[in-house]
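Feature request, filed as a ticket because there's no other form

It would be nice if the structure record came with a short human-readable summary line next to the C-alpha cells. Right now we just get the raw output. Example of a typical job, pasted below so the devs can see what we mean:
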Amino acid sequence: MLNLVSTGSNYIIMIMCAIYAISCFTIFLPSSEERQVKRMDRQERFMFLFHFLCYGVLFCQTFDVKIIALYVAQAVFFKLLIFIYEHLYMDCSRILMNHTCFLLLIGFVMLTRLSFDKAIKQFAIVVVSSVVVLIIPFFMEKAYWLKRLRWLYGLIGLLFLASVFVIGTTKNGSTNWISFGGFALQPMEFVKIAFVFFIAAMLEKPADFKRLIVTILFSACHVMVLIMEKDLGGALLYFVIFVFMCYAATGRGIYIFGGLSLGALAGKVAYTLFSHVRVRFEAWLDPWSIIEGRGYQIAQSLFAIGTGGWFGMGLTQGRPSDIPVVESDFIFSAIAEEFGIFFAICLILIYLGVFVHFLRIAMDVQGRFYKLVAYGFSICFIFQVFLTIGGVTKFIPSTGVTLPLISYGGSSVASTLIIFAIMQGIFMIAYKEDEEDEENEQLESGAGEENEGAQA
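Raw output as currently delivered:
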C-alpha cells in the first residue's frame, strides 16, 4: 500500500515541479503586475503542496507523530517568513523568496527521509539564520559605505580562513573546520562572502596596475590557504569567482583564457602533491575497477541515479543510505533515485532560474560595486551547483562541495541564506533606482510640457 501511495504521489510531485521549473523563466516575460502576482502565488501553492505530499508519504511509512510535528513547524515557519518579508520589505523579490523556500523544503524532505535528527538540526539552523539575516536587506539599502572597506574584507577573510591552522579540526582529509561547544563551523563558507565583497570593492573603479596586482596577490593567498587546508573544492570555487569577476570588471578575455590555463596547471600539481586528489581522480576515471574501495561512493551514486530512472522509485522506496555521505555531498543522487531523473532535471532548472534572476539583478542595479557583488554571487552560486551535481554524476571528479540550500551542513545553508539576503537587498536598491528614474522622467516630461505651453 505504501508503495502505491509513494509512486502515485511521485507523479503529482513531478508535474508540480515541472510547472514550477517552467515558471522560473516565464516569470521574466513581459506581463501585467496582476499576472505576475498570480504566477508567484501559484509557485507558492505548488511549493506547500509538494511539502504536504512528501511529509504525508513519510508519515505513512512510520506513523511517527514527530514527523507530523516537524511538518507543521516547517509549514508555519515558512508561511510566517514569507508573510514577514512581504510586509517588512514590500519591494523585495517574491521570486527569490519562493526559490529560497522551495529549495529548503526539498532539502528538509530528503533529510527527514535520510536522518530525522539531522533534519531537526538543519531546521533549527535555518530558523536562527533566517531570523538573523532579516536585517541584511535593510542594511544593504542604508550602508553606502560598504565599498570603502576594501582591505578590511581581504584581511578579515584571510585571517578567518587561516584560523583553522590554530584551532581547526580535520574531517575527510581536509583541515577546514572549527569546532567549539559541540558546534562545527566551516570558515570557507563565510569567507567566500567577504571574498566577493573584497574583489568588488577593489575593482569598483577602473583598476590601475598596482591595485590589480594587490587584488591578485590577496586572492592568491586565499586560494593558497585553502590548498594548504587540502580543501581543493573550496580553492577551485574561489579561483573561479576571482577569474570571472575580473573578467566582468575589465572585459578582458585574457582572464578567462589565463584562468583556464592556470587552473589546468594547478590541477596537475594538486594531483602530484595530494594523495586524496589522486584517489578522487582515479575514482572518476574508472570507479568500476576499484568499486570495492576508492570507487565505491561514485559507483553507488551512479547505481542510485540509474535505479531511479526517469520517474523515480518513490519517496522511501530507494536505498540512498548505500551511498556514503549521502546527506551532504551526494544528496542529489538520493533525490534522483527516489524522485526520478525528470524531477532532478527540473531541480537543475530551478537552480538555473535562481542564477538568471541573480544576473538580472546584477544588470538592473546601477552602482558598479553592487553590480560586481551581484555578479560574483551569481558565479559563486551556479558554480557550486555545477561542482556538486557534476561530481555525483561522474561528469567531473568529486570535490566535496555541498548542494546549496538542500545538502546537510549548517555552515553551507547559513552562508547561502546570507547571500540570498544580500541579493534581496541589491534587488531593492535596483527597484528604488528604477522608481527614482521614472520620477525624474515624469518631472522632465512635465517641465517640457510647461515650457511648450508657455511658448504657445
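Something like this underneath would help us a lot:
The chain is about 75% helix and 5% strand.
Strands lie at 168-171, 174-180, 183-185.
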